[in-house]
Amino acid sequence: MSAVVEASHLTRRFGDTTAVDDVSFSVQKNTIHGLLGRNGAGKTTLMQLLTGQDFATRGDIRIFGEHPVENSGVLKNVCFIKESQRYPDDFKPRHVFTSAPWFFPNWDAEFADRLIADFRLPLNRRIKKLSRGQLSAIGVIVGLASRAPLTFFDEPYLGLDAVARQIFYDRLLEDFGENPRTVILSTHLIDEVSNLLEHVLVIDEGKLLVDQDAETLRGSATTVVGTRQGVDAFVADRDVLHRDGIGGLASVTVGRLTPQDRARATEMGLELSPVSLQQLVVRLTGSNQTETVLEQSA
Amino acid sequence: MSTLTQPTLDEARIDRPGGASNILAVVRLHLVNRYSVFAVPWMIMGGIFVVNVAVWWIIFASVSSEADRADARDGITYSGALFYIFVYMLVLGIQAVAYTFPFALGFSVTRRDFWLGSALTFIALSAVYSAGLTILAAIEVATDGWGLGGTMFASFYFGGADASWIERFGLYFATYLFFYFVGAAIATIYQRWRNNGMLALFGTLGIVLIAGIALVSFTSSWPAVGAWFDTNGPSGVIAWSLAPTVVAAITGYFILRRATPKN
């Protein structure tokens, strides 16, 4: 294993807002990372910093061991697909796919053709006239067919329908199996990609809240359901992430449980259910009483 | 974590040049849409030419006396018809940075390779278009103004009818370069500083212009300014335009080096 991305104390300020705030993490080779967080959390800025498109206020970045800024040796191995990508005014999709191989040494034209057919993308329509979903499809195709050793997808599928999204997940996994590479995927559709992700980074207000492998993270919280009395007794000395209740029933989300805890809960007649990644992220970034629990579980 | 790192962790190398292949890739990217780059400019030129021919024909047909015709011909040598084609190139220069730059960066091109590739593209396109104009000017002179005594290509500003082809080519070439690079440089200011950059640029230009006029007026130097234009002639003035062209090429590069495309 080796680190493809290393960021240390990375900070980016715009005037008096801090978009990325003292973020440190590293990404191992040939893994699929999820970069999760709310709108404006700093995901795009972080990815722009990692790809040399933006300039850090403080901190250090290494991509394949080198600084990415204006380093074409590094950037040749990087593909950054972003939701807001602009295209030349008079371009048609065919111009994008014609020129892509000049910039991505691993470009697979056959794979691109297959994806174009999968997504039913019209090649000869001006990009300006494409629908939002078709526009996203261009990015997704470039991101997959470029086979860059390090690929960033920033909200790659705005406007893509469920079928097209499924195609994206399937093709990504298929191709990942044959041509392993490092993928960093930012998305709001967390449940959809939950099974894809091997590692999760959660960022909120510029700060890195979670840097954990997905498996551990999924087990890091559990919802306890039962009578109010029973639940209250069970969670008495635990940190509570979230609490719901109707009448005499309560549903409380707590941190990691040991097998003994689980056995005890069963004895007490309480139901335990895992918390989905999406719920976890919502709870972590949704309010101000966030950090406590995850720190304990991390 | 860093103990896990193996990939070439030699000293930090910033600004590693990408080599000729990256620069050529940018050139090809600029030219990938052949229709906009090659067809549209000639279509614009064709349209302007047709309008001009119509005007010449009207003059030719309605003015019968030979002396009056010569007069009209003299006037036509001050044709500014070619100006439009240069304005289109200004727009292409702006678009190269406004649209192609964010796209190229998305294709993992460095700013340096983008600018060098763009400069090369501008120079190549200027050469091709200048060659075309030079040929058209030669035909114009040889056919005595397309048989109607008209002037569009061999106009006064590009050396008139007596200029050598090399002189004409040089003048067209310098003019093309000026419009490409100035357009591109203005667009870099927008990429870097957005609207504030535009306001500052045009504000400054306005102030400099007014200050210049004031300076010349208060020192009663207008005759000297006129004399300068007179001595240099159109060729001299266009040759001098290489100075702002070079300034635009260099400042554009440094401005773009720290620019981040937004949406």
UniProtKB/TrEMBL annotation, chain A:
User: Could you tell me which SUPFAM superfamilies the record lists for this protein?
Assistant: P-loop containing nucleoside triphosphate hydrolases
User: Which keywords label this protein?
Assistant: ATP-binding, Nucleotide-binding
Q: Name one Pfam family in it.
A: ABC_tran
- Answer whether the UniProt record assigns the keyword Nucleus to this protein: no
Q: ABC transporter domain: which residues? A: 5-230
Q: Does the keyword ATP-binding apply?
A: yes
Q: Which residues cross the membrane?
A: none
Highest taxon above the source species: Bacteria
Matching InterPro entries, A to Z?
A: AAA+_ATPase (IPR003593), ABC_transporter-like_ATP-bd (IPR003439), P-loop_NTPase (IPR027417)
Q: What is this protein called?
A: Multidrug ABC transporter ATPase
Native organism: Agreia bicolorata
From TrEMBL, chain B:
The alphabetized UniProt keywords are:
Membrane, Transmembrane, Transmembrane helix
Question: What protein name applies here?
Answer: Uncharacterized protein
Native species of this protein? Agreia bicolorata
Residue spans crossing the bilayer: 39-60, 81-102, 114-139, 171-190, 197-218, 238-256
